[in-house]
Design a protein that fits this description.
The protein is mainly beta and about 80 residues long. It contains 1 helix and 4 strands; from the N terminus they run H-E-E-E-E. It has a domain of about 55 residues.
């Protein structure tokens, strides 16, 4: 199933759009992505959240977890499809 987005494209963002968003962020802000399993997905509107580094977490839980006392990071969170 392909989810049709703007201009009949299956993609949520272009490189140019992502660059515009990134240019609004501090140049030294870390970037993290959500993940698990294989293949590739679109991502939701990027956002800034605080995370804590937990390097001993199992790979499926990710080494960063949301934590109000953590460090701010720029997050690209993959789109979750229910199909």
């Amino acid at each position: 199933m392909v989810i049709t987005m703007k201009n009949n494209s299956p993609f949520n963002f272009t490189v140019g759009e992502l660059i515009e968003i990134l240019n609004q962020q501090p140049k030294d802000m870390p970037v993290v992505v959500s993940g698990y399993e294989n293949g590739y997905e679109n991502f939701y509107q990027p956002e800034v959240k605080k995370v804590k580094h937990l390097p001993d977490n199992p790979y499926y839980d990710g080494q960063f977890q949301i934590d109000d006392n953590g460090i701010e990071v720029f997050i690209l969170e993959r789109e979750v499809r229910n199909d």
